[in-house]
Amino acid sequence: MKVVxxxxxxDRNVRDDVADALGTTIDGVALEIRFxxxxxxxxxxxxxxxxxxxxxxxxxxxxxxxxxxxxxxxEYEFCPPVVLLIxxxxxxxxxxxxxxxxxxxxxxxxMTLPKVVEQLVFVDEDEAA
Length: 129
Known about the structure:
single chain; six-stranded mixed sheet; about 40% helix; globular
């Protein structure tokens, strides 16, 4: 078993920071981290239907992570949970519109991000019912 996480940002530094923060395993399960720098690349990955969690940079250009999160929640029957990375606390209200399951500030906190991804990927069966 492996967990597939898709990281979207047009900024390589953000993608690298997320990968470094996540490490190589979550709850003892191997992580496969995939990267996307464009909206089209994200949609191609989601069409494979094997992504367990998405991490989107709200500041990405030209397609921001908030709009992309809203799009995939509206358009994909299979929509993995989305963690949205925001640069300003004031953007939290707009992040709620995006339907992201979690919102975290940038820069990425290597203690918090893996815990949030773990909670989203390994949903307690009793909670999901």
